[in-house]
Amino acid sequence: MSAVAFDTLEERAAGLAREKQRGRRLRFTLYAAVLFMVAWSVKVIAVDDTDWSRILGASLLSTAKGFVDVDLSIVGDLWEPALDTLLMATVATLAGLVFSIPVAWLGAANITPLGRFSYVIGRFLMTMSRSVHEIVWGLIFVSAVGLGTLAGILAMAVRSIGFISKTIAEAIEDVDPKPIEAVRAVGGTRFQILIFAILPQVIPVFVGNMIFEWDINIRRSTILGLVGAGGLGLVLFRQMAMSNYGGVTTVILAILSLIIVGEVASHFARKAVI
Amino acid sequence: MRSERIPGAPAVPAAEGATRAVLQVRNLQAGYGDKVILRDVSFTLNDDDFFAIIGPSGAGKSTLIRCVNSLAYPRGGEILFNGRDLVRAAARELRAIRRNIGMIFQEFNLIERMSVMDNVLSGRLGYMGTFRSLFRLYSKEDIRQALILLDRVGLSEHLNKRVDRLSGGQRQRVGIARALIQNPKMLLVDEPTSALDPKIAREVMGLIREMARERRIPVLCNIHDVDLACAFCTRVIGLQDGVKKFEGPPDKLDKQALHDIYAMEVL
User: What is the CATH number of domain B1-48+56-91+220-259?
Assistant: First the structure.
């Protein structure tokens, strides 16, 4: 009998079963470890750190009731901040757009003026704008220009550059090369190629994304009240500070209606352009 | 220099009056990397010529046309346009040369989101400065010319339509008007009919020939359809694998000549 004959079908099946069992044991050990980690985290973060007397006592219910009791008496005072929020978002989006054009020009591989060098600068500016949170931009601009709507507008404008310029740059990289060839063939300059062959192709992307960013900026401007940037955000945090939970709900509802209005407006604006 | 012909090249019978060489291509070579696209192609185009360049796909027809206005860069040889060497022209001079060469494209290459009128007027960009082109300040004369041309190509009812709403034949007519408003001294035409159906194709070829004759503009036209080439051109150049295999009037293009040009094709 040779060694090969010894390795019967039964022998091989038993070997495979042993292997499988080992694999199963390893898997269950891993599951147990993960489960333990989760339970431990929950205990440390949530169980030990939570004020249980508050949740189990009567205050939870009364607080929740406070939020449900919508305070409509402040509605009259919300019109002006709502308009502020809307204007902040609009101005910030337009400013962001203006800043985005040169950044997109640098960061679009096919038209960047100084090759790899300017391309990297453009892409770096885009990433920087996006990787810093709007609240952080807000804090930076508050320390630079002081409290108020200007800081909020600048924060949103700078934060908007990342998205707008990136999508424009990508649209520029994806343009149909045929009109470019046509403008070159009639003796056009690089600038004329930009204006006549590239710009008409990216305008729909341009406008569509600007409307989208405007929509986002309405949301952002409400949060930027936190750093004193005015608008509905400021009212929200004031109501919160006064523990007027009914008022907080009213402001949240006002923000919601503003966003819905923005949503509807952007839907029609996009349809008109594209 | 201007009226001289390449030694050995067959003379073209003059239609009326004296002919003049507009384009002289000598030993043109093109390619990229290890790939050779054109080898030593030479010919002369006179002001009353309508040249058809025929040949199988990949023969280098498109590259040849694109070398003539430097949309593709040749590796060697000379391209003399009215005596000026295109291959060695600097950027500014090249633009000045290009505005004298009209080009009609296979896929029309129109600016899709602009109107018929704006597309035609974009043919004047080579004559305009940065400021005027930014605000689309076309001169009255340019607009007058555009109206005349659009009337001539039969599009006067579609002036303000966006070109993406037009049919293929109409789009190519916009392309023709755009090339002619440049007031070109030569027309380069790259497969003008392959995106069109046969009837429209003949109409478009007829229009190009008519308008070129009226203005005494020579035409250099790539075309893969041999019958269409013979019906409209005064002279045929046959390319195969980057080499000129044939040059002569259409009636000299017999079975043997066609076989030489298309020998590599599996029929």
Answer: 3.40.50.300
